[in-house]
Write a structure and sequence with these properties.
single chain, 276 residues, alpha/beta, elongated
Length: 276
Amino acid sequence: MNQDEQLNGLAQFLGRHRRVLALTGAGISTASGIPDYRDKDGTRRGKLPVQGPEFRRSDAVRRRYWARSMVGWPTLAKAAPNAAHHAMAALEEGGHIASLITQNVDGLHQRAGSRALIELHGNIHTVVCLECQTRFARADIQRQLAEANPHMANTLAQPLPDGDAQLEPEALEDFHIPHCTGCGGMLQPGVVFFGDNVPKATTEAALAMMAQADALLVVGSSLMVFSGYRFCKLAAESGKPIAAINAGLTRADHLLALKVGEPAELLLPRLAAMLA
């Protein structure tokens, strides 16, 4: 199919179903300058990320995480919603998408105006104390990190997904990690680490969205992580059709009724304009 045929196919897909649930992944945010995790074959790039149990157990792992985050988070902080995020909000406003689940932690869907939204893996712009549960803005923690580690203020490194950066361990020996300014407790970003479970309340709300939907639209996700793929499994088991906008391979290719390989930031604005 050429691009016009793909666009018409997506418009017909949305037109046939009254309550479409959208599921987005890292591919929708790459046009905002945020690196994604995988190549077009679904293969993960680079080393495995920090695991949640290791983060909470090891001071060395926490130093590694916060040092890399100090250097990498500004990429996320300055990122703005791209045309795909705005188009998703417009599709919701126009009644063409009923709800949205995002695997991303960048907060760009909210900034673009999406409302019926669940952040499946949390939000990188918040930090929580594991002792007293006080929540902090990530920007405030960045200032604490900069004050405690002035030797790293001008460090440059390749940005990685979710505010990470490519730093080598030997640069982290003298790094000071942040603590809760109220109780001195351990701070953890407000995201679901690899090795941790999505909070029960979030899972239940997302599954309720899936149950209420009559179709699923996947945008910018390879679905290699089960927390996203499960929605495709549930849709297929319920006889609900699935369409995908993704540049490469997805774990659910065998379940898709329609797949479009065009970049979301180019295709979605045209789709929103067509349906407006």
